[in-house]
Design goal:
elongated; 467 residues; HDIG_dom; 60% helix
Length: 467
């Protein structure tokens, strides 16, 4: 959002004006300023401490650790919701304002981003408080009227998430130019679970705040929330380390063999599309993406002179190159988070009819991940621009996959990929490979599926054996 479109700026300004009108106290009403100041200071302290803790988790692009939902929700959220449960809507809307305006913003334009986040949190807190008060939730909190207090608090949480989803969707459409049908996916449901947990903590804070023990006891609720936030941050720190490991391996492969630069990332994307179509859960789909990205990591063990050789390979040289799946499997054996992905690295050149390598597995003996990556690998090999030829059209590449289904590829994976392409299309960044050293044109890696060219060597797949 570095270059913000004019309509997005107008949207942010309108959102900010709406936030100002919501936070303005009604004429003739007295705001509980002492409680507002205490809640606001507590919310700002929580937010600034969380930002300080996550400062070491900044990625190279300047963004922070993943948030739990739009607006950068964190362990200051229970404080905002507790204020929504206890204070009038205009007063509750002021609580997140100091923390949001003082929070550090990494990306430009900083002022616009800070204004947007402050306005978003103000409106979400105001909406939650308005719904809670309209349902008589404040009285239920003061008198500890359970379970009705849970009903009012639940409605407030839903209102908070709904406003958050609407505002996030608008900024995605106007600033990022994301289609509406894509922007709305998951915007409401994704933050609902964490905000619901924060809502329970906020409700406990509100009840304790009004109890004989007072605000000091309410602060104790933040201790388990801090522990859970710390565990959440640790999880994302570990995931960031995983991504850094994979990025380093892929960059090493690209440096060694620029001939297929970008190929790994595209195979990972295509593998993820197939995984989603097959109905895999998020964890397996992510593991399959890793498998697609790292399927060629074994090329690090192949002599560079063979990867960059002009002209046909000798049988001995071809056998050496065909060892790269085993090299790759050995390289990632000790990386625990890859788990099932390792089988795809080892077996992505196996073929359904048993003529593949390295072990000549047949049919269902080939791991599912390997059968997915084989389709994604072949598709990208056909649709990528190379120095010696233009990319094949997507339709032609898909027709070739369908023709070889049952002998070379698993028909189920090919059909899943065809359905995914029909819905999403294929829009990777089109990159031409860098010319080889000394300006000599590189000869094409043979494309010889078994059903296409009689006499083709056993085990040669689309785009191989120089995968």
């Amino acid at each position: 959002m570095r270059s913000v479109p004019p309509w997005a700026r107008v949207y942010v300004v309108c959102t900010a004006l709406g936030a100002v009108s919501c936070a303005a106290p009604s004429p003739g009403t007295r705001a509980p300023w002492a409680a507002v100041a205490l809640f606001a200071a507590l919310c700002a302290a929580c937010e600034l401490l969380a930002a300080r803790r996550s400062a070491g988790e900044r990625r190279p692009d300047g963004t922070g650790a993943p948030a739990e939902g739009g607006a950068g929700l964190g362990w200051h959220t229970p404080v905002m919701l507790a204020a929504a449960f206890l204070l009038p809507p205009p007063a509750a809307a002021l609580v997140p304002l100091p923390g949001a305006l003082l929070a550090r913003v990494e990306q430009r334009p900083r002022g616009l981003r800070r204004t947007w986040r402050a306005a978003q949190l103000v409106l979400c807190t105001w909406a939650a408080s308005r719904v809670h008060w309209a349902l008589g939730g404040r009285d239920a909190v003061v008198t500890s009227d359970f379970p009705y207090a849970l009903v009012a608090a639940g409605a407030a949480v839903v209102a908070f998430c709904l406003v958050l989803a609407v505002l996030d969707g608008g900024i995605l459409v106007l600033a990022e130019r994301v289609p509406v049908r894509v922007a709305r996916r998951g915007l409401f449901l994704r933050p609902l679970a964490p905000v619901a947990v924060h809502g329970l903590a906020g409700l406990m804070m509100a009840v304790l705040w009004r109890s004989p023990y007072g605000p000091a006891a309410a602060l104790l609720v933040l201790l388990p929330m801090y522990v859970s936030w710390w565990a959440f941050a640790q999880y994302h720190r570990e995931r960031a380390a995983h991504r850094a490991t994979i990025r380093a391996l892929v960059q090493a492969v690209d440096i060694k063999d620029g001939y297929t630069r970008g190929h790994s990332e595209r195979v990972g994307r295509a593998s993820m599309m197939i995984a989603r179509e097959l109905g895999m859960d998020d964890e397996r789909a992510e593991a399959l993406r890793f498998a697609g990205i790292l399927h060629d990591v074994g090329k690090l063990g192949v002599p560079t002179r063979l990867l960059r050789k002009d002209g046909p390979l000798t049988p001995e040289e071809r056998r050496i190159i065909e060892l790269h799946p085993e090299y790759g499997h050995e390289m990632v054996r000790g990386i625990g988070f890859l788990e099932e992905a390792r089988s795809a690295i080892l077996h992505h050149h196996e073929r359904l009819d048993g003529s593949g390598y390295p072990y000549g597995l047949k049919g269902c003996r080939i791991p599912e991940f390997a059968r997915v990556v084989a389709v994604a690998d072949a598709f990208d090999a056909m649709t990528s621009t190379r120095s010696y030829r233009r990319a094949r059209p997507v339709a032609a590449a898909l027709a070739e996959l369908e023709r070889c289904a049952g002998t070379q590829f698993d028909p189920r994976m090919v059909q899943a990929f065809a359905r995914a392409l029909g819905r999403q299309g294929w829009h990777p960044a089109v990159t031409a490979d860098e010319p080889p050293p000394h300006g000599r044109p590189r000869l094409p890696a043979p494309y010889t599926p078994v059903a296409t060219e009689p006499g083709a060597r056993r085990g040669t797949a689309p785009g191989g054996p120089r995968p």
